[in-house]
Amino acid sequence: MAMRLQLDAGAWSRSRFATSPAMEVLGVLRQRGRHPAAHAREWHARARRALPPEQLALLEDLVPADHSYAPDFLTPVPRPGESMREVAARIAATPGEEVDYQLDIAVRGRRVWPHVLALHRSAAAYERWRRPMPPALARVARDGGAAVAPAAAAAMATLFETVLAPDWARVRAVLDADIGHRADRMAAHGAAAVFDDLGERMRWTGTELVLERDYSGVIDWAGEGVLFVPATTHVGPVLFAAERPHTPVLVYRARGIGALGERPSGAEASALSGLVGVTRATLLAALDVPASTLDLSRRTGWSSATVSYHLGILLRAGLVDRHRRGRVVRYARTGLGTALATSSADAGPPAAPAAPGGPRVLRRRDSDDFT
Questions:
Q1: Which of 19, 147, 231, 359 is deepest in the core (most CB within 10 A)?
Q2: Within a domain: residue 233?
Q3: CA 145, CA 103: separation in Å to the nearest integer?
Q4: Is pLDDT at 28 greater than 60 in this prediction?
Q5: In which domain, by residue range, is 281 found?
Q6: Strands 217-219, 2-6: parallel, antiparallel or unpaired by DSSP?
Q7: Structural domain count, the chain
Q8: Residue 321 Cα distances to 236, 275, 296, 318, 368, angstroms
């Protein structure tokens, strides 16, 4: 049994890499506190402390630890430069009928779609694969899929902002390094080298990618290529998201995630965050090389307006400077900013609670999907 993703030379030439904060969030939820990576276990522990119980319960019902399927609407196909606020808006705006369809796929007692049933060995096998409706999701789903999407978006946004955002610059560095490594391998050894260590239960035949599963099907609409998405929280076989007509997405574990556990995770662990707040401490740490507001927005997941506001405070405090080159303004740490950012990693816990890190972010995919 396998899913077969047809990928001819033209489609392969249009394939590309992308990153997704939502994929990182779903990896934390999927593994809970049993994740093999220390940084992901810490993120889940933080989520348990920071999220309202009803939000965490809803997310864990949508992304079960004991089932392979999570609804696609939680992780929209990544777009270049998209902030977490924009991702959340797309999640919240998912049509109710699309959410209902994705819940139908994996929840017992809901509608059975013939084309989904046809992917399985038998009706009995499909029914065994489905799972009961969990309680927190049942309460929200009583009002239909149109109620589930915005509730899930708000919960994912809260989790990202309170748990992952302080570490996002470091996570982006790991993801960018993974993509750079694979681009170098492709240049040196050819396109097939990309698949060498993406993950188990997947093979490349020269014309299609074969992903071993408990059901079978063909993904034949990858004319515009495939998006390869590394994630520091992914565990196990390569996952796929494939819903016609959207570009298919393959999610795999990023290389080099050990670097995320080399020191206490998050800017809030430093004395600097107690002085200037988590958001500004994170931006100061991210400015180890000069960057524009847009660069920092992409790396942190915060909106450009949020980044610009906090950079203005750092500028007035003399911790950063700015320089214009053509139409682009780049920010860089001053000597004082560098001294604070580099020394704070060795300091003890903050003497005062961290200041709020800017406005809350409002906020499709971790696991296998169907056509």
A1: 231
A2: no
A3: 8
A4: yes
A5: 271-346
A6: parallel
A7: 2
A8: 44, 19, 15, 7, 46
